[in-house]
Amino acid sequence: MSVRIATAATAAVLGAGALLPGAQPRTADARTSDRPASPVVLAHRGASGYAPENTLAAVDAAKTLGIDWVENDVQRTKDGVLVVVHDTDLKRTTDVEEVFPDRAPWAVKDFTAAEIAKLDAGSWFGERFAEARVPTLTQFLHRLERNRQKLLLEIKSPATYPGIERDILRVLRKEGWLGPSHVRNRLVIQSFGADSIKEVHALRPDVTTGFLGTPEVADLPSYAAFADQINPSYKTIGADYVAAVQRLKGPHGKRLRVNTWTVDSAADAAKVHAYGVDGIITNYPDVVRDATR
After folding, report:
1. Is 187 exposed, middle or buried (0-12, 13-18, 19+ CB in 10 A)?
2. Parallel, antiparallel, or unpaired: how do β-strands 150-155 and 208-212 relate?
3. Which of 44, 182, 201, 273 is catalytic?
4. What percent of the chain has pLDDT above 70?
């Protein structure tokens, strides 16, 4: 199935681990078979092939498709509120240039939460999403809780936001996401910043953590000291690399997991599935799910 065909079909349906916590380990039969166990499918910025990324609409689109795991990106506003948005500026996914024409370069860190809440974060994707807004992390967590979904949270550009790790953990704690059940089954925190993930691990060693990137095989043991997952681009890996990661145990004494991104075609999904990855992060979760069953 091509992404183009799947997009049209699914749009019509949608209308106008270790661990990924909760993932089941492979059985001996699965390990020895030609086809690995089906990977966990994670909706990248929500089901962002079908709704504007990192919005509550994208969370709901993932839910409609039957996808439990949602990935997002977290940054901090000028007044210290955590918001869910990918780019470090607001230009690509909002109408900030129209609303605040004199505020270039429109960096997230230069706007208050109230100012960001005024922005249209959906029309760029489609007019029917014109009411979509940039959610706060709190709003995002509430929607996940309502939908009974799980969260792969990315700390975006942590060097731009000193102390954001404590801020994130504070919000997670307040909203009940650091209780035993959530920590064990519904939450992973990841980042491209190794120091940021080290900080999360130091502050909350019970939380599952992931490093975004493709470290050299020789360096993997040092990452295993603080990360439960190595989450690389699918373009940078092969079966040998996946196996090298999975031979190691992470800080919780369980083997490292591999969740690869961003896989949007059935052919690429089948390829990385054959590598033995544990999870696939995708804008089109239905396409990946169908290709890896």
Report:
1. buried
2. unpaired
3. 44
4. 88
